[in-house]
Amino acid sequence: MTTTLAEEYGALVVFGEHRYFGQSFPYDRKDAFKAPLNRYLTVENTMMDYVELIKMIRTKYDAQDKAVITFGGSYGGMLAAWLRFKFPATFQGALAASAPILQFRNNPYAPLEGATDILTADFAAVYPED
Fold first, then answer.
1. Which end of the chain, N or C, is less packed with Cβ atoms under 10 Å?
2. For the segment 90-107, what is each residue's pLDDT rounded down to a tens digit?
3. Contact in structure between 87 and 107 (CB atoms under 8 Å)
4. What's the whole-number mean pLDDT along residues 21-46?
5. DSSP 3-state assignment of 95?
6. What residue spans define the domains of the chain?
């Protein structure tokens, strides 16, 4: 992503830092995750951070007409997909690898044990009991 594809397509690859992680703490690290200081640690706020980051980058590099493809794996993949769904004018594509975007408690369409059931069945098909 960062070398081969970026070089081939002349792309700028940016890794935005998630709020409350890395250097992006609004409060002292030892207190940041405690209520009420953690009230700004929401998916909605995180997505708006990325929307604002892309606006700034597009302005800085005069790239308003360039496509933005967001990508990630697991939780990062969930963010990538949600950004594309919620902000299609900002994010023209998304690659969501291993992203359980429907995997929530009480979701009848993606029960929490669904992945485990599939893995167990796959394993049993390869290594049947004797």
1. C
2. 999 999 998 888 877 788
3. no
4. 93
5. strand
6. 4-99, 103-130
DSSP 81: H
User: DSSP labels for 21-77?
Assistant: STT--SS-HHHHTSTTGGGG--HHHHHHHHHHHHHHHHHHTT-TTS--EEEEETHHH
Assess contact for 19 and 46: CB atoms under 8 A.
yes
Q: Which two tokens stand for residue 99?
A: 């992203």
Q: What count of other Cβ atoms lies within 10 Å of the Cβ of residue 117? A: 10
Confidence of residue 130 (pLDDT cuts 50, 70, 90): low
> Cα angle at 113 between 119 and 122, to 5 degrees?
15
pTM, to two decimals: 0.79
Alpha-carbon distance values, 78 to 110, 118, 122 (Å)? 14, 20, 25
**99, 78 in Cβ contact below 8 A?**
yes
Angle at 88 between CA 85 and CA 94, to 5 degrees: 65
Is 60 in contact with 34 (CB distance < 8 Å)?
Answer: no
Dihedral angle, C-alpha 4, 46, 111, 115, nearest 10 °: 30
Q: Tell me the average pLDDT of the chain.
A: 91
